[in-house]
Amino acid sequence: MIAEVIVDVSAYPIDRPFDYAVPAHLETVIERGSRVKVPFGPRKVIGYVTGLKSESEIEEHKLKKIDELIDLDPVLSPELMDLAKKMARETLSYEIDALQVMLPAAMRAKYEKFISVEKLEEIDDARVLAALNGRTRIPLKQITDPDVLKLIKDYSERGIVSVDTAISQQTKVKKVRTVHIGNSDTLAELLLTVHPNAKKQAELIRWMLDHAGETIEAAKLLNESGIQNPVLKAVIEKGGATEAYVETYREPDAPKLLDTPIPIRLTEEQQTALDKVKVAADSGKAETFLLHGITGSGKTEVYLQAIKHVLDKGKEAIVLVPEISLTPQMTARFQERFGGLVAVMHSGLSAGEKYDEWRKIHRREVRVVVGARSAIFAPFENVGIIILDEEHESTYKQEDTPRYHARDVAIWRSEHYGCPVILGSATPSLESYARASKGVYTLLELSKRAKNQPLPSVTVVDMRDELKEGNRSMFSVQLAEAIRLRLEKKEQTVLFLNKRGFSSFVLCRDCGTVVQCPNCDISLTYHRSNESLKCHYCGHEEPVPLVCPECESEHIRFFGTGTQKAEEEISKLFPEARVLRMDVDTTRQKGAHERILRQFSEGKADILLGTQMIAKGLDFPNITLVGVLAADTTLHLADFRAAEKTFQLMTQVSGRAGRHDLAGEVFIQTYSPEHYAIELAKTQHYQTFYNLEMAARKQYGYPPFYFITLVQFSHEDLLKVADFAEKGTRYLKNSLSPETVIIGPAAAAISRVNNRYRYQCLIKYKKEPKLIETLQQLIRMYRTNWMKDGLLMAVDMDPTSIF
DNA sequence: AGCACGCCGACT
DNA sequence: GTCGGCGTGCTC
């Protein structure tokens, strides 16, 4: 038997199956989707079996044997194996990368070289002996001294030591020690025989008599009986109980926030939507729904009941939410409804916890998975429904290879299972809404709030007028007044500051110099916490200069409106206000999000001040005011999605206010009140926004009227990158059809990152059957010739932004 | 990607 | 004379 194996090596000529002979004893167990350890050239690597056959075209003497089978149960189903192949092609990535992205990171193999001592008596160098320190096997990377390294190489050639590569995985199964307490007869008997001095043992046995026959976790037993471990050990030794180590799951402490119950009785709109989904689920045909429901319209309840429907039919459900750790309320609701049937996968979990959740799914111990992007690869084999909440979110697109979009993967999987997909959003992406308008997706509308609350009243404040009135603070008179009122009424305020593109920078007031990153074409961001300047692209960090680096003037100070600065202004304006700040700085530690949100939900603060991350999921009854400090920051980005993103953000943020009994009020501060994205956020009129934005997209030839693909080039040498970009672009122009528009090559908006100059070229097309082949050819040219010249090239199909 | 093989310059 | 630089080519 011959196995086709894709090996764990991401390189261009390796991106294809290699044939291996299957040893006889593995023939009955090996399957497509199994992982194997195979010899590859001079080393050993992990690989995935992509197929089994009886004959190979490879000459017999070249054919090697599979070393070992890693999993008894294949880790990937045939469906996921096929999906990996399709995804690799569609995203122009290596098949191995597509396979690996489907499994939790803990299952990815680590390769580490080790030195093993073969003939200890022949090692005569003191430094080598010191490095070994009595051990016979040490990791090669522990040797840093080049002289010692040289000696090791010497020894290795003479066979005194050997160097091998160990393949390790972090897939540790957690085990817990349990104690099975013996029956009362044995215990009673034992009690009579213990030494009179062993008071503690006697005490434990008496405690055990009350629990005879039970099995209990050792830690719990010790805790409840108040006995020390050595005593327990002695009793076990004497046969009073037996101990065992039982496989267990790490329980991520699920943050419990209050679920705000929505009436289970559905509104008429919800019911209509649900019925259509149910019909599709029963039909066995794939159908994609766009559930367009305004904020507070009860989309989640529709999801929950649709899931219930498919679970009742014995099928499974996948629910995707954008960065789930930010929305503990959402997970809480799923766990409340489906209890132990739910696995949760999000970035806040440790590698081990993610692996445990994956195993629960793989072993069919759960039937619902709620998770971030990668949960779309949940190893279910009878999927009944797939849901993407907040489908417009850009986090569904992976930013490095394989650059897949979870929405596309969801639809591919639904076609395999003949099941519905629900894309839910208050502000759908233009692509999805356009597809729904054309009938590719089925549109479901929820236009009323579930509890019939009015939408919050939204006021747009023109900050230019404020400036004219002499108000130079970050808060308009109106917003400040509204905050004061909330403080008086003991209601809560959420202040939103979109930091991106508007962060604090350091400017010299004499010569106008802005302190730039030495490696990147971008200004450094001021961080008050440690008085430093940081680059958000390469991580460069330096202390705040005391004098201008250009003109040595002392009139150098930081400008802009970061959250830290906003916090200071608030405390000046409202000294009595209790403020919680939520941004990258305050949420770096694990669990920080939850802690801040819990504090706010418990009413321990009056004002929550934050960036992007507070726009979603917040659902607390006492929030009656939302203020957007600077709505323009996303508007002026050089990106075709700028208006869409702004509108989505404004709508999302506004939706945080007045979700319950108290009426909500929203203030949006801006320097461009006349822009339609802001104007329309006032009424949350998605349809009107859609029409206007579609007109703009049509005029400039952007999605959804055209598909786009971005080809990025970077090189340390400006002239070289320009040259290669030109070559690549010319190749594309010559190979693609004349209707396809190719823009560039041009320098990227941030023209240098980490000392590499960046160029890009944008392909816009309506129909381009040769695109994938052409790009593959381009990539081939790059990998075979240009790469060794130091060029980096990346292709992104359907980029979310064209920065 | 690794890793080995192989062919030319600067040292003991 | 040898050590070692990294160009080239291969991996079932």
TrEMBL record:
Enzymatic reactions: ATP + H2O = ADP + phosphate + H(+); Couples ATP hydrolysis with the unwinding of duplex DNA by translocating in the 3'-5' direction
Cofactor(s) of this protein: Zn(2+)
Chain positions recorded as Zn(2+) 1 binding sites: 508, 511, 548, 551
Gene3D superfamilies (UniProt xref): P-loop containing nucleotide triphosphate hydrolases, PriA, 3(prime) DNA-binding domain
E.C. code: 5.6.2.4
Family matches, as InterPro entries: DEAD/DEAH_box_helicase_dom (IPR011545), Helicase_ATP-bd (IPR014001), Helicase_C-like (IPR001650), P-loop_NTPase (IPR027417), PriA (IPR005259), PriA_3primeBD (IPR041222), PriA_3primeBD_sf (IPR042115), PriA_C (IPR041236)
GO MF, one annotated term: hydrolase activity
Cofactor-binding details, from the entry: Binds 2 zinc ions per subunit.
Assembly description: Component of the replication restart primosome.
Family, similarity comment: Belongs to the helicase family. PriA subfamily.
Protein name: Replication restart protein PriA
Species this chain originates from: Sporosarcina koreensis
Gene: priA
